[in-house]
Amino acid sequence: TGVSTNFSVNPITPPSDASASSILTIAVNSSATPGTYTLTINGTGSLTRTTTIHLTIPTPDFSLTAAPTSLTATVGSSHNITVTVNSLQGFTDTVTLSTPNLPTGFSSAFVPQQGTPKFNSILTLSLNSSATPGTYTITIQGTGGGVTHNTTITVYVLTPDFTISAVPSSLTIFIGSSE
């Protein structure tokens, strides 16, 4: 069901000194069931010959990517990550995005949080005062149509630090004077 075939030339009359050919066009519509099928092609005339081909109809799916895939952050900062959801093999279901199991001190928001592929979402990842320095792998999850995919980004949270400097970096002060 959902598969139709058409030969470019049918019937074929081969010349006596060469073989003849026809191009088989196979069309798969949305009512086709994913799977692998064997198609049998029969050639019938004064003789009968048979050949088979294997047709695979893949299950509709989607891909999930994030950019950038790593970032350096400090406590109190927010960062935007672009999450892209693309259709594979005609996937048309709504995909909902989430960030399961965020570390303590992290929060996230997607705009939009769901959509039909192809779409882009902006993930805003924020770190509050309870985030601790370290390296974290953040999972971004997309779920739709009974399919779930994950992608990850790495977040390097820096230890709070400061710098100190003096200008000028050297002085000559005579005894009994000040600068």
Commentary on this structure:
The protein is mainly beta. 0% of the residues lie in helices and 53% in strands. It contains no helices and 13 strands. It has strands spanning 3-7, 24-28, 35-44, 48-57, 61-67, 70-73, 78-88, 95-98, 106-111, 114-115, 119-127, 134-144, 147-157. A 5-stranded mixed sheet has the order 6-13-12-8-10, with no helix packed on it. A 4-stranded antiparallel sheet has the order 5-7-11-9, with no helix packed on it. It has a two-stranded antiparallel sheet with strand order 1-2. The protein starts with a strand and ends in a 22-residue tail after the last strand. 11% of the residues are buried. The mean pLDDT is 91.
Average pLDDT confidence is 91
User: Span from first to last CA?
Assistant: 93 Å
Shape: elongated
SSE string: EEEEEEEEEEEEE
Q: Major beta sheet, specifics?
A: 5 strands, mixed
Kindly state the number of beta strands. 13
- Would you tell me the structural class of the helices and strands? mainly beta
- Based on CA atoms alone, the radius of gyration comes out at 31 Å
Strand order of the largest sheet: 6-13-12-8-10
As a percent range, the share of helical residues equals under 10%
Uncertain spans, ≥5 residues at pLDDT below 50?
A: none
Strand content: over 45%
Q: How many H/I helical runs?
A: 0
Brief summary:
The protein has 179 residues and is mainly β.
Topology:
Blueprint: E1 3-7, E2 24-28, E3 35-44, E4 48-57, E5 61-67, E6 70-73, E7 78-88, E8 95-98, E9 106-111, E10 114-115, E11 119-127, E12 134-144, E13 147-157
Parallel strand pairs: 6-13
Antiparallel strand pairs: 1-2, 3-4, 5-7, 7-11, 8-10, 8-12, 9-11, 12-13
